[in-house]
Every structure is written in structure tokens, then in C-alpha cells.
Amino acid sequence: MGADCLIRKSEESKGNKSGGDGWRGQLIIKEGKSNKSGSDGQRGALIVVEGCDRTGKSTQAKKLVDYLSENGRQAVLMCFPERSTQIGGIINGYLSKDCNLDDRAIHLLFSANRWEQLPLIQLHLQAGITVIIDRYAFSGVAFSAAKPGMSLEWCKGSDSGLPRPDLVLFLDLTPAQAEERGDYGTERYETRQFQARVRENYHKLVDDYWKVIDANRSIDELHEVLRAIVIKTVDNVEDKELGTLW
Ligand code: T5A
Predict the structure, then answer these.
(1) Which residues line ligand 1 (CB under 6 A)?
(2) Whose CA is nearest to atom 6 of ligand 1?
(3) pTM flag (> 0.70)
């Protein structure tokens, strides 16, 4: 049966990326359009969009889901932090500076927020649905390890065992280029110095399943670059087993 996938708009807690602007990772299956992935038992691809703040991750992640859906591949958008859960609520309070937490405690909560969404990720992948995720464990490590006394190795520990993405699209911008897109907001971490350390950490995490993309181009130009990479990944997943992180 041909099916097309949309992401349901729903009322959300403020600031929830997969929800704050009305998007969350729930599926509506719409009749009519042919669906390439899934129909032959092939799993979905796991694709992560990463980068420092304001590099255009959310904009591009949404455009990729739309592009795949319009081209007969089922796809769903998820994002981290997923602020709609109880753990996500604490994270939201921390990011908006309503509460303070020990650096290790908040790091573990960011990780727990991913683990609690793992069954949903697996469900989609097994159903042949590609999952595009706006931030993942790499954000967890790059941001936490930018704090004094937090090592990359320690920060990796709590995400060890999560599925390793088929593809990480790392949208790279200098903090100065990111600032040209408007002042950093009032959330924690939104300063040029902190973002510079985060960027250094990301570059230490680059692996062979990553694509480092110069994000200093227009929304449409960037989308064209990304969609060419993504469609190849989605169509070549075949029966490749998903690895695990670290
Ligand atoms: N965090 C997250 C951790 O510390 N640990 C973790 O484990 C995780 C998962 C919140 C914070 O949490 C930290 C990282 C973050 O500091 P978030 O909710 O994803 O994470 O962050 P936000 O601050 O909400 O989002 P970003 O600032 O990262 O923005 P995006 O998604 O990169 O950018 P986007 O698409 O929203 O665009 C930003 C602006 O730029 C414009 C857009 O219109 C928008 O105004 N824009 C462009 N302008 C010019 N050219 C382009 N190509 C553009 N693309 C977008």
C-alpha cells in the first residue's frame, strides 16, 4: 500500500523544537503516494543534523523531511532536546536559566532524554521510515565537553550504545558567521566564546559517517547540497545493520 508520511502539528510546550513551532515526531500516514522505503522490508535510514547554534539545522531538517516525503520516501522529524517529556521539561528550565544543575547532572539528563526516545526511533526505522534528527548525542558531547573539567571521553559514556547514525550532516559555520544571522538569544550556551569551544569539539568528533558541510550559503543552496547526500543514503541503506555509538 502506498503511503505518505506527514508529521502531526500539535500544541506544544514553549520552545520545543519538534513542537514549539508545531512539529513533533508523530506520524500521520496519508494514502495515495508511493512509498519506496518500507515496502520491501528495508529499514529506514537514521540521519542526524548537527552543528553549533544558528547554523540552520532545524530549517534544513524540516526541508529534508518534506523533500523525502514529496519524493516517495517516508520520513519523520525528531529533535533533541525533546522538551515535551518530563526530563525535557527540566532541560528546558535549565536552558532558559530557570534552574541551575551540576554540569554532570544536566549532561546525563540530555542523554536520558535520548534514551527515552529510543523505542520511537527504533519503531520508525523498523517500519522503513527514515528518521531525520535535529541534534543527537554529538551535541551532548560537544556542548558538555566545552565546560571546564568535562572531558570528551566522559561525556561520550552516557550515550554509548545508542544507534550510530547512517549519516551525520555537520553544518559548519564560524561563530561570527552564525552571529550574522541575528544576535544569540538568552538561552544558556549562546555566547561566541562558548560556541567556539563547541565547534572545536565537533571537529574532534568527525568520523567516516560524517559529512562536514560549509553552511555559509543560502537556505536553498544548502538544501540542494544536503538533499543529494541524503537521498543517496536513504536509497543505499538496504540491509546494512545499524551500528552503535562509541
Ligand atoms: N544541547 C543540546 C546540549 O547541551 N546537549 C544536548 O545533548 C543537546 C541535544 C538547545 C541547546 O541545547 C544544547 C544545544 C543548544 O544550545 P536547540 O533547541 O536545538 O538546542 O537549539 P536552538 O538554540 O533552538 O537552535 P539553534 O540556535 O541551534 O538553531 P538552528 O536549528 O541551527 O537554526 P535555525 O534553522 O533555527 O535557524 C536559525 C536562524 O537562522 C536563519 C533562520 O531563519 C533563523 O532565523 N537561517 C539562515 N539564515 C541565513 N542563511 C541560512 N542558510 C539560514 N538557515 C537558517
Answers:
(1) 17, 51, 53-59, 80-81, 95, 110, 135, 139-140, 143, 181-182, 187, 189, 218-219, 222
(2) 140
(3) yes
